[in-house]
Amino acid sequence: MSTRDVVFPAGRQALYEKNRYSPAIRSNGFLFVSGQVGSRPDGSPEPEPTAQVRRAFENLNAVLEAAGCTFKDVVDVTVFMVDPETHFEQLWSEGLKHWGEAPYPTLTGIGVTWLYGFQFEIKVIAKLPETSAA
Length: 134
Description:
By secondary structure, the protein is α+β, with helices and mostly antiparallel strands. 28% of the residues lie in helices and 29% in strands. The chain has 3 helices and 6 strands. It has a 6-stranded mixed β-sheet, with helices on one face. Helix 3 links the parallel strand 4 and strand 5. Helix 2 packs across helix 3. The longest helix is centred in the middle third of the chain and has 18 residues, at 49-66.
């Protein structure tokens, strides 16, 4: 079995070790990022849903930056949302601020009933820059 090429953003490794998963893995020129939620540095959720989305994108950006990527490198997005019928427009409008101009990444949105105390989670696949592809 090959060793996983794990990417850890600064200051959050203890949370990932506690929960026993990798924030992101580099593989075959791509970066596979685990779902990012609106957690504060101690792992607790931001109390307000829009602030949770904002924080989830900040956490995602930290993982992308640790791998040498930006939002422009993201090719596929999956979002999970509690009660999307009520919250989708409000919460996703916060996310739209990060994608820039078209062409946009692909998007799959999934409504869920539970996210461990969170309202929103985002996971992505990004194309690694040629210089850091592993």
